[in-house]
Specification:
globular; three-stranded mixed β-sheet; 15 helices; five-stranded mixed β-sheet; about 35% helix; alpha+beta
């Protein structure tokens, strides 16, 4: 009987490969949907942040191109993705996403007993949503009326506590409807959100979950079941069992990642040399790279861990990457065509230059300062404005 020692992978190697596969070292000329597939979706609770996430990874796309992919050619879909949060996902991947997300254990219903819906009621509402949204776009109020007409007044009872208001009972399964493939976002109607039916059939759950793990490990591996569970907001025990089944089927394999077990797609064990990824990048709120890359202690070294991880949650601040790790936070403010990008540099293990005297006007080398200026210009171009870079303190708090 022969045994083999798992390959050893350092943080620098994993980080450099992730950055390469995210198009953060070399922007691509691929369309936004291809970029979204590589990232495993762009967080779109704030749509402008998703537009930046996608376009910053390309050579010349702007928010206009992202919106065209979303609303004109339909290669992107705005829907509920990982963690039940709003994402831009490739339309071509929607069967996998809906199949996988529908197969994740949901746990106990957090709603009060008098608010919950039975399994039968849930199925009735899902069927009503699918029917009402087919070939049309409806606002929340219009959809509520359509659901009540198809199910009964109980579905429209305003019993859900929400933002000092009461929402109809059916809205507790809005994200579930997205995961089942019967609801996604339509075009806004003025200030009102609309929904439509994407007309997708979810893939079979077990196969879809295997495909999603493979996509995740390709983009963010090596990773553990705990990392995967955190990214999905899923039970760790369930994720551990899923990884074990995929390992038994030969789909994933173990490596040693910074002295601990990690997993990669079977055969995907080629990593760059053990040197930091090079470059300067600005990433917006809730960028997929900062949310999914683990361990956080390595991605957010030094002061970045306390400053850029508001309450321990990645994504609440836009971040500055220097050589593959977080070395600052930033904020952009628009005034007409001028977009002022303020970047606050932090003391970081990855950025020894930032530990220079605070009296230094720009504690960056001339090369890195030029790269930062180019990034600010790129942000402004994407947002169809003119850039003004300020290196100083960011006084705006984290995004809620």
């Amino acid at each position: 009987m022969t045994t083999s020692t798992p390959p050893k992978v350092s943080w620098a190697q994993a980080d450099a490969r992730r950055i390469h596969r995210q198009f953060l070292d070399q922007p691509t000329d691929a369309p936004p949907a291809t970029v979204a597939a590589a990232m495993l979706g762009a967080h779109a609770q704030v749509l402008s942040a998703a537009e930046l996430s996608l376009a910053l990874r390309t050579t010349d796309s702007t928010r206009v191109d992202v919106r065209a992919a979303l609303w004109e050619d339909g290669t992107l879909v705005k829907t509920y993705g990982p963690r039940g949060t709003v994402h831009l996902l490739p339309a071509a991947d929607l069967p996998m996403w809906t199949g996988a997300l529908s197969a994740i254990p949901t746990g106990a219903n957090p709603m009060p007993a008098d608010v919950r819906m039975t399994e039968e009621q849930t199925d009735q509402v899902l069927a009503a949503i699918a029917d009402a949204l087919t070939d049309t776009e409806l606002t929340v109020d219009e959809l509520t009326d359509a659901i009540v007409a198809r199910t009964g007044p109980w579905a429209g009872d305003r019993v859900m506590e929400a933002f000092q208001d009461k929402w109809p009972r059916w809205r507790q399964i809005t994200h579930l409807a997205g995961h089942r493939g019967v609801l996604c976002f339509g075009r806004d109607r003025g200030r009102k959100v609309t929904y439509t039916n994407p007309g997708v059939r979810p893939a079979e759950g077990t196969g879809a979950l295997g495909d999603l793990v493979a996509r995740y490990l390709h983009a963010y591996g090596p990773a553990s079941p705990r990392h995967f569970a955190k990214w999905l907001a899923a039970p760790v025990g369930w994720a551990t069992g899923l990884f074990a089944s995929l390992a038994g089927a030969g789909r994933i394999e173990e490596v040693e990642f910074e002295g601990a077990p990690g997993w990669v797609v079977a055969g995907d064990t080629t990593f760059p040399d053990a040197r930091p990824a090079r470059g300067v990048r600005l990433l917006p709120y809730f960028d997929a790279f900062t949310i999914a890359s683990q361990p956080r202690e390595s991605l957010f070294p030094g002061d970045a861990y306390s400053r850029a991880l508001a309450g321990g949650q990645a994504g609440n601040y836009p971040v500055l990457l220097i050589d593959g790790t977080v070395a600052g936070v930033w904020h952009q403010r628009r005034s007409g065509q001028r977009i002022t990008v303020t970047v606050e540099l932090l003391k970081s293990l990855s950025s020894p230059e930032s530990s220079k005297s605070p009296k230094t006007p720009h504690p960056l080398s001339a090369t890195r300062l030029r790269a930062l200026e180019a990034q600010a210009e790129r942000v402004a171009t994407i947002l169809e404005g003119r850039a003004e870079l300020v290196v100083g303190q960011v006084t705006v708090g984290p995004h809620a």
